[in-house]
Amino acid sequence: MVNQPSESVEGQLFAAARYGDTGKLRALLDKQPDKLNARNQPYEHTLLHVAAQNGRLDVVDLLIDRGLDPNAREKGDNTYPMHWAAAAGHLDVVRRLADAGGDVIGDGDDHALQVIGWATGWEGCDDTVHREIAEFLISRGARHHIYSAMSINDADEVRRIVERDPAQIRRPQSHNEDLRLPLHFAVHRKLREMIPLLLELGADPLATDASGFTPIAYATEPDIDTAILQAINECIGPTLIVAVALHDWAAASMLVERAPSTVNADGVLHLMAKRGNVAAVKWLLEHGADPNEQWSHWGARLTPLHLAVLSGHVDVARVLLEAGADHTIRDSMHDSDARGWATFLSRQEIVDLIDRSDRA
């Protein structure tokens, strides 16, 4: 790796740690051993954080042998290097950090997930490697919480956790996740087996996150939350959102006949677009829903087309555009139109669809 003359020693150190250049790192630290505890900006993570995240075991060995603390915390999410290694799926690094005295529990991170939650709780952390990391952490003294147990679809462990402490069924995630509850998380992560289990254990299908959204607002597939929709029906009777989501057209027609304005209320078209429910979107449009209605979705006022783009639902986008959706309307948070969202999210099919609609 060729360094630019203007690159600082700290910059060279962090680059070497990131790319696994142990020779370069050793040479730099031999010359300036006081730089071992260098902190990168803006969140002050250490060389060990960077090496751990990138799976650079040789670098991790070097840094630990030189005396770098495996339990040093950075100031963004208040995490150890082990949190980063676990999230990235580097079991060998997690083991090395633990052997060096690293805290396998890792309580106090800003997401309130502990190391085991960082190993299992993010998108993509549901493969064999991340499960093995969770098992390793448990072998060294960590314990599952409800979110980590759900993430690996361990129904027995979820039962044990709730039986031991019934309040866990209502345990919110951190402010970073909008204080969503286990049922919200299960829908968001598409944990199909967990949803009926949580309802059986007493989860409230109408409980809300910090923004006032129930679990069904997290759905990005048409049938992911059927059990929740049915439970809501049993709790409070038919609502338009539930009726159209379940394709109960008779109930939906009755509700709209009684109060025509409901077809444009509560973001019903937006949520059906987000979950890719083509039949429900068509029904709502046929019964007077406005394809350009703007509704607040986690702080951003946007259109149904924005949410179809967000979830990558090409068929829904096509139906909305054919119904007169204006793709030039900008959302209030990112100041971007639907095509801009599609470009940013690499939804090329929808970009092409919008471009064709302009030429038509």
In short:
Strand 1 (295-297) and strand 2 form a beta hairpin. The chain has a two-stranded antiparallel sheet with strand order 1-2. It contains 21 helices and two strands.
Enter the CATH topology name of the domain at 226-360. Answer: Serine Threonine Protein Phosphatase 5, Tetratricopeptide repeat
Extract low-pLDDT stretches: 1-6
Radius of gyration: 24 Å
Q: What is the molecular shape?
A: globular
Strand content: under 5%
For the biggest sheet, the summary is: 2 strands, antiparallel
Q: Could you tell me the number of beta strands?
A: 2
Q: What is the topology, as strand order, of the major beta sheet? A: 1-2
Mean pLDDT: 95
Q: Give the helix level as a range of percent.
A: 40-55%
**For this structure, what is the CATH homologous superfamily of the domain at 226-360?**
Ankyrin repeat-containing domain
| CATH class bucket of the domain at 226-360 | Mainly Alpha
- Counted by DSSP, the helix tally is 21
Second-tier CATH architecture of the domain at 226-360: Alpha Horseshoe
| CA distance, first residue to last residue | 51 Å
Give the H and E element order.
HHHHHHHHHHHHHHHHHEEHHHH
Backbone structural class: mainly alpha
How are the secondary structure elements laid out?
Elements lengths: L8 H11 L2 H10 L15 H7 L3 H9 L15 H8 L2 H9 L14 H7 L7 H12 L6 H6 L3 H10 L17 H7 L5 H7 L25 H11 L3 H6 L3 H10 L9 H7 L3 H9 L8 E3 L2 E3 L1 H8 L2 H9 L15 H7 L3 H12 L1
Antiparallel strand pairs: 1-2
Helix pairs in contact: 1-2, 1-3, 3-4, 3-5, 4-6, 5-6, 5-7, 7-8, 11-12, 16-17, 16-18, 17-19, 18-19, 18-20, 19-21
